[in-house]
Automatic annotation (TrEMBL):
One of its GO terms (molecular function) is guanyl-nucleotide exchange factor activity. GO terms for biological process: positive regulation of TOR signaling. SMART domains: Robl_LC7. InterPro entries: LAMTOR2-like (IPR037587), Roadblock/LAMTOR2_dom (IPR004942). Transmembrane segments: none annotated. Residues 17-107 form the Roadblock/LAMTOR2 domain. This is Roadblock/LC7 family protein. It comes from Ktedonobacter racemifer DSM 44963. It comes from the Bacteria.
Length: 164
């Protein structure tokens, strides 16, 4: 299976993702919404989380999700598709999107978890369609971007070596 880290998300898809996260945040009255890949890399974040805090949170939540899938395996479950973490002031709901991304919703105790689950499912379906568009555009793989950058770098290095 193609890993997300080998794909490049265009501005058009990023705008769609950001709009979807904003709508989800507003509809659930969440404080933040995030989309991360399974390795913990932040794809997009909306709300009160700063980017540096979101990066750390993304890595930790990806680790928690990964360990929960191992727990599922030990219990002879196929997998766990979502995790709900309940705190005194804030809660986190994390759900898998198409085996590649994790949708994270951070919300306070006044928001009902049932609403979050229903709306996150709708959002995950739409994010799945966006991910499919990203996957289907093979011209945007990271390897092709790296090859262009590598070629340019090599040409620049050759120019520096042989200039008069």
């Amino acid at each position: 299976m193609e890993q997300l880290t080998n794909l490049v998300i265009s501005d058009r898809e990023l705008v769609a993702i950001t709009a979807l996260l904003t709508k989800l945040m507003n509809d659930t009255n969440a404080t933040s919404t995030m989309l991360i890949d399974k390795s913990g890399q932040v794809v997009a974040v909306q709300g009160s989380e700063s980017r540096s805090k979101a990066t750390t949170l993304g890595a930790l939540l990806a680790g928690v999700f990964s360990s929960s899938r191992e727990v599922a395996r030990l219990l002879n479950e196929k997998d766990f598709r979502s995790i709900f973490q309940q705190g005194v002031q804030e809660n986190i709901f994390t759900s898998m999107v198409e085996e590649q991304w994790l949708l994270v919703i951070i919300f306070d105790k006044l928001t009902h978890i049932g609403l979050v689950k229903v709306l996150s499912k709708k959002a995950a379906d739409e994010l799945g369609r966006i991910l499919e568009r990203v996957r289907s555009d093979t011209s945007r793989t990271k390897s092709s971007v790296i090859n262009l950058q590598f070629r340019s770098s090599v040409e620049d290095t050759i120019d520096l070596l042989f200039r008069d």
